[in-house]
Amino acid sequence: MTNIRLIANRNRIGFKADGHAENRYACGKISIMCQAMAEAILARAPVESVNGYTEGTGKTEIIADISGISEAEYRELLTILGVGQIGFSIIQVQFPGSLDIAFENSAEG
């Protein structure tokens, strides 16, 4: 199994029990962007676990299995999550094994 670990800072992502993204903390434009990010992940890889939004830290950690997706799909996922798409920037990538990617919200809300 290859996991992708996404840490989204200052976001408002929430997850229902069935794994679909929802806006638990409405915050205008940022909420919409975060939901788009979550939907992109869910469309590409099953989510293994979610550590929910923590008050004060503003972080949501998502762990998803990406072993079943192609390199092209993986690159598309990174593009979807990139600055040009939804206002997040990649600030950390670690190899091999689990792929840790930290996102910092670059949009003002």
How would you sum up this structure, described in words?
- Strand 2 and strand 3 form a beta hairpin.
- Residues about 10-30, about 55-60 and about 80-109 have low confidence and may be disordered.
- The chain is about 30% helix and about 40% strand.
- It has helices spanning about 30-45, 70-80, 85; strands spanning about 5-10, 15, 20-25, 45-55, 60-65, 90-95, 100-105.
- It has one domain.
- It is built from three helices and seven strands.
Distance between the termini: 36 Å
Would you report the number of β strands?
7
Query: What structural class is derived from the secondary structure elements?
Result: alpha+beta
Tell me the quaternary state.
single chain
Cα-atom radius of gyration: 13 Å
Overall number of domains: 1
* Strand numbers in spatial order across the main sheet: 4-5-1-7-6
How much of the sequence is in beta strands? Answer: 35-45%
Catalogue the unreliable spans.
8-32, 53-58, 82-109
Largest sheet: 5 strands, mixed
User: Tally the helices: what do you get?
Assistant: 3
The topology string of helices and strands comes to EEEHEEHHEE
Helix content: 25-40%
Average pLDDT taken over every residue: 48
Shape type: globular
What's the layout of helices and strands?
Elements (H helix, E strand, L loop, with lengths): L2 E7 L3 E3 L5 E3 L5 H16 L2 E8 L4 E7 L5 H10 L2 H4 L1 E7 L4 E7 L4
Parallel strand pairs: 1-7
Antiparallel strand pairs: 1-5, 2-3, 4-5, 6-7
